[in-house]
Design a protein that fits this description.
- The chain has about 180 residues and is α/β, with parallel strands linked by helices.
- It has helices spanning about 10-35, 145-150, 165-175; strands at about 70-80, 100, 110-115, 120-130, 135-140, 155-165.
- It contains three helices and six strands.
- It has a six-stranded mixed β-barrel with strand order 1-5-2-4-3-6.
- It is globular.
Length: about 180
């Protein structure tokens, strides 16, 4: 009979490193392929079936249900000179130097924050067109937006889209932009 001696102390760190890498890769693949998108519905807040017998009328009311923040993760592409001056779905002429984008389902005029997941650069763009044509993409950005995010030479990039709901947030982002970029 042959006995095989295995030093578990040497193998455990390697095993956990590989297991962690496989888990992270698997989660990343599911996240990008699913085009993760949170719904716009509200989540119901748990409430007791029988109301508490509190006669104190100044008691705090339960908080309103929390709304989920809309976001989407996927690949972005850009379009430029070939479409310059053509009419967009919103009726305006396409300008490759404006901070605009094409999205399949967001309302025209919506503002979305686009973050390049490779270099973490962020920009706010306005939806003024429908697209992108390839089903594997979530958004088509104008050339200027793609250049600002750093992937105009590459063509596509992994991005996260976040819906901007308040004008205060846009004003704060606008204040952070350097004068040269305005």
């Amino acid at each position: 009979m042959i006995a095989i001696a295995i030093d578990i102390k040497k193998l455990l760190p390697k095993f956990s490193m590989y297991a962690g890498a496989v888990l992270a890769t698997t989660l990343g693949i599911f996240e990008l392929n699913a085009g993760v998108q949170a719904s716009n519905t509200t989540t119901p807040q748990a409430t007791p079936a029988i109301p508490a017998q509190n006669t104190n009328k100044s008691a705090a009311k339960p908080a309103a249900p929390a709304k989920k923040h809309w976001y989407q993760i996927g690949r972005a592409s850009w379009y430029g000179e070939d479409f310059q001056g053509q009419q967009t779905a919103s009726g305006e002429n396409y300008d490759m130097n404006d901070m605009t984008c094409a999205h399949r389902s967001l309302p025209l005029g919506s503002l979305i924050r686009v973050t390049n997941l490779r270099n973490h650069k962020t920009i706010v763009v306005r939806v003024n067109d429908r697209g992108p044509m390839p089903e594997s993409r979530v958004v088509d950005l104008s050339y200027a937006a793609a250049r600002f995010l750093g992937f105009s030479g590459r063509g596509t990039a992994p991005v996260r889209l976040d819906l901007v709901k308040s004008t205060t947030e846009v004003a704060q982002l606008n204040e952070l932009l350097p004068q040269a970029a305005r």
